[in-house]
Amino acid sequence: MGLRKIASALLVDDDTAFRCALQGALRRRGVRAVTAASVEEGAHLLEDEPVDLIAVDYRMPGTDGLTAITRYRRICPDAVIVMLTGFGDIPLTVAAMREGADTLLTKPVDVDRLLREVGSIPAERDGTRAPASTRTYRLEEVERETIEAALNDAGGVVATAAKMLGIDRRTLQRKLKRIS
What is the pTM of this model? Predict the structure, then answer.
């Protein structure tokens, strides 16, 4: 199995400046990128033309990005779906993966990080999703990144990071031992 090549992308985000900046950066790297300001607009664009990559923001007016994942997966089953959020936490990460996202990235996201992350997802031969073991590995990777970001924001204080993540301090300590 080779790594994914991205030729086309749909960016769904209500932040016009972010959406346009990411679109421009993708286009400069040879990716045909279209944008949508809402989940509904994104669905209409996908119905007209499938893409290789869908990056959807979590918090948007109306339908949120989490709800959109299942719909987008149904319309465009072979696309890589990336949940973008400025409010990443472990429960959101788990929910996004369960809905069918391939990964979750916390904002701000630069185009090189996005393409590196997407490029590391193996391309499937027959349109089926990656095996569960691959998705589990990606989930653990996102969980580690989320914990590290919370610890950084909390100034290294485990109790504060645990509160930010919405988990018990002892649970966070066990997770830290497992990932270190």
Answer: 0.70
